[in-house]
């Protein structure tokens, strides 16, 4: 692996102030990128950017709510004034706070404000970031855009209706951008993330639920933020120069197998055999 594969590039990570976005910002910086940590939480963005700078990297914190267009325009303008170019956009921000999760239920009971917020932040926010970043990438000769999506985008589930629809929209967006600007040097890909435990999810998710989810992953452990960030850095770099319009599961096999796998595994364990 080329350790400084993003030297000289400028990367924006939305929602970079915590969780997976924070790790992605750190790993892109480790590879030499100048990183813009854009987050609705100004203090979190500043904390991450400052610690990247303390480690010898180059980072800029920008307070930005991707749920509305003017802050996105202002953020992109600030990046251009500061760094003069944009090569990488990681659309990572998502409305995922506890109130949002609780309000985003099954179709009959989904709160309409929660639906709108998921769409505004996750899907429309990613589209607006592309809308304002792509012209700068075109001027610079190309770029790489990564969309953080989820297994919810592809698989039905009993809750998080709005989140799922917003993540599916992001997959369509990733492909639209790939089709529209590929000939001008812009690549665009979506990653479908399994459960990668962040500080927040590690602390708040009940152990029983973690176990249910782990049983459906094919890996010995749930994901770690670094495993997501390494794929984002790969997609951001020239190492992935022939990958575009792709939806890449980064999910420990979560989306790859029969829905009966976990109960079958438990059944075979119970009967002490896998021979029917
Ligand atoms: N962690 C996982 O296991 C997992 C699984 C599947 C998909 N994902 C996706 O990965 C991404 C990151 O997830 P996470 O677990 O780190 O979430 P998180 O909630 O820990 O972090 C989200 C970040 O986005 C920021 N944010 C929220 N609303 C914003 C807005 N309007 N404008 C700008 N920033 C905003 C938050 O302040 C926070 O820093 C999300 O897109 C999520 O859907 C994560």
Walk me through the topology:
Layout: E1 10-14, H1 19-30, E2 34-39, H2 42-54, E3 58-63, H3 69-83, E4 88-91, H4 98-103, H5 112-140, E5 143-150, H6 161-181, E6 186-193, H7 199-204, H8 207-216, H9 225-236, E7 247-250, H10 261-271
Parallel strand pairs: 1-2, 1-4, 2-3, 4-5, 5-6, 6-7
Helix pairs in contact: 1-2, 1-9, 3-5, 5-6
Bound molecules: nicotinamide-adenine-dinucleotide.
What does this structure look like?
The chain has 276 residues and is of the alpha/beta class. Helices cover 49% and strands 15% of the residues. Helix 1 links the parallel strand 1 and strand 2 (34-39). Helix 3 (69-83) packs parallel to helix 5 and helix 5 packs parallel to helix 6. The structure holds nicotinamide-adenine-dinucleotide. Nicotinamide-adenine-dinucleotide (NAD) is lined by residues 14-15, 17-21, 39-41, 44, 64-67, 92-96, 121, 148, 150, 193, 195-196, 198, 200-201. Nicotinamide-adenine-dinucleotide is lined by residues 14-15, 17-21, 39-41, 44, 64-67, 92-96, 121, 148, 150, 193, 195-196, 198, 200-201.
